[in-house]
Amino acid sequence: MERIVTKRLVLRALKPSDAAAMFDYAKTDEVGPQAGWTPHKSVEESANILNYMIRTNEVWGITTRDNDTLIGTIGLHKDEDEKSTFRSLGYVLHPAYHGQGLMTEAVKALIVYAFEQTNIDIIGCGHFTDNIASQRVIEKCGFIYQKNIEKDFNLFGFKVRKTCAEYEITIDMYKENKLLWQQH
């Protein structure tokens, strides 16, 4: 996994020692439910999920340039029923770092990486329609709205149906407007 450095962030490979830092943000109600999962209940749960992420090699850890402590994750996930050049973007960030433009910076860097260094043709991304902060990140990063869909999630032990807005960026859109993404 390639290390990606931006003005304020480092996107790097995850490591088992990140479990406590992951738990620090994954235990909060501000993170998991906005991404479709129940907050973590223990460092062990975070460690298990972290180990899965390490095995799939689709997720980068997000740290600041001056501190290697994990503050979030960002990934490009392959959907089995999609063509191999499509990836779904997913991300979470510790609430202490919200509202600073850090996730926008990380997403733009990953878009540049995906279209410049891999064979990815399309990046999809989505948010729950009530998650305005994630919507702003997605729109600032140049994603184009496609549609709303209903999805089922297991949150807090219950099946919950949520409306998700879905967006895309294609390689052609990227090539037409590279400067939008390369200013991170």
From TrEMBL:
Belongs to the acetyltransferase family. RimJ subfamily. Residues 9-178 form the N-acetyltransferase domain. The keyword GTP-binding does not apply. Keywords: Acyltransferase, Transferase. It holds the Pfam family Acetyltransf_3. InterPro entries: Acyl_CoA_acyltransferase, GNAT_dom, N-acetyltransferase. The keyword Nucleotide-binding does not apply. This is GNAT family N-acetyltransferase. It comes from the Bacteria. It comes from Paracholeplasma manati.
